[in-house]
Amino acid sequence: MMSGDDHNNDDDGAGTGVVTKIKPKVKKPSLWRVLLLNDDYTPMEFVVFVLQRFFGMDEQAAAQIMLHVHQKGVGNCGVFPYEIAETKVSQVIDFARKNQHPLQCTMEKE
Ligand code: TYC
């Protein structure tokens, strides 16, 4: 794949052209991993519900991730473009707060 715009330069054919490389305007969105953190108080069923509601998982997948987090301390809920990941983190933390659970969620660059 060609990167950079090789057509956009100053070469007028006179042999004195200064070649300028223009940066491509379009970048791939960087991907961010959303992580769920374990705690001692949030009920397991609540975590399973959160994974279904905000990450579109079926009950089986959600239970599997929840148990992984419960046992290992942290787990991957999915990888998303920055703004989607940020929204999911906020949604999880807000929903947990409203239900008075300390469940925490964070994100890291993939
Ligand atoms: N450790 C919690 C409990 O024993 C369950 C739990 C799982 C909490 C995953 C948070 O991200 C979490 N009730």
UniProtKB/TrEMBL annotation:
Keywords: Hydrolase, Protease. The keyword Hydrolase applies. GO terms for molecular function: peptidase activity. GO terms for biological process: protein catabolic process; proteolysis. Residues 27-106 form the Adaptor protein ClpS core domain. It comes from the Bacteria. Signal peptide: none annotated. Gene3D superfamilies: 3.30.1390.10. Belongs to the ClpS family. Involved in the modulation of the specificity of the ClpAP-mediated ATP-dependent protein degradation. This is ATP-dependent Clp protease adapter protein ClpS. It comes from SAR86 cluster bacterium. The lineage of its organism: Bacteria, Pseudomonadati, Pseudomonadota, Gammaproteobacteria, SAR86 cluster.
